[in-house]
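Forum: Protein Structure Q&A
Topic: Joint prediction for protein chains with partners

I've read a bunch of threads here and the consensus seems to be that you should model interacting components together rather than docking separate models afterwards. I'd like to see that in practice. Below is the full input, 388 residues plus whatever partners are listed. Could one of the regulars post the assembled result?
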Amino acid sequence: MTTPVHLTMDQLLALRDGDRSEPAFATAARHLDSCATCRAELEALHQRTARLRALATMAPAADQFPAIRTRLHWEQSRRRRIISFTGMAAAAALVIGFVGSDLVAPPTLDAEDQIAASISRSQALEQTLHTWGPDDRVMDGRMAMVVIELEDRIADVDARLQDVARLQRKERMPHEASLWQERVGLMNALVDVHLTKANNVDL
Amino acid sequence: MTTKVLTMDAMTLPDADAVIARAKRGDPVALEQVYRAYSTPAYNLARRICRTTEDAEDVLQETFFEVCRSIRNYRGDGSLWGWIRTITSSKALMRLRRNKYRDTDELVDDIAPARSSSPALKMDLENALDRLTDTARAVVWLHDVEGFTHEEIATQMGKTTSFSKSQLARAHARLRVWLGEESRS
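Posted by a regular:
Agreed with the consensus. Here's the joint model:
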């Protein structure tokens, strides 16, 4: 007595899905006409699929939209900040280069050095943040709020830097040096917030 | 074979065209409407692919962050839900790869649960689904429930169409045994 040969799961799935690219699809369809066992298997497959589709829908426990909105806001303010920073750093470097070659301003030389060092440090921190890629990271609501506050404070410093740029050089240098130092401090904090969180979750 | 057409846009997002147009202009109210309309099905899809609720919630946030940033690129060729669904599955599969779960393509062999009455049967199906490897479970869900084609699944997984088909066949063979549905010797 020989064991009857039944359809494989691949063939049953091809029949269920009407997938004629499956080899021997026509043979499998003919076999189905004469085999009650395989017809029962195909029916069971249909029912299993229907039950899969009828499984309960799972809903998220937490509303993610506030965090998404925060990330969007943060991303936009960050873009504005980078554009603003790039312009200010270039302008400041030009001024320092021009004045530095003049050698007639000993009272502001320290301030110029400080500004140049702070700009360089700011650029390095911006690069660190860019390399780490905060835009592609999920963040919780509390962290997002800290990030936004720091971003807002950096934006405020940038606005004040633009304001003092209108002052006369002698008056401007000490203010600029102080503001650039403040900016470096805030950027340090921003990088710390991102990287500390990353280290905590072992990303 | 084409992806199953879903009419979820009309069901879940009244006045979808106007909302999408406003969302494309960055209107935060419209973006929130899109989130409210599709966050549950997107989460459900993510949760069916990911092992944990935490991962699924991260995928949900990543998905809608991407949706909000990129909706201006949505051309409207297919349904909005179809577009969001593809982003969700892509993010969820990425999460699976990143987490490097025990994804060895070997199905977990175990004793099949006993037959039971209909309400409990669904629990059994949940358990059986959960027993599949991450890859097999993802293929079953994406193909049989979400309506992705094997070609689409293969593209998202970076595998071949044959791989997707064989994963589905092996998964169903296992589910059949675990659910006690063997009718032939």
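Residues 1-6, 105-117 of chain B have pLDDT under 50 and may be disordered.
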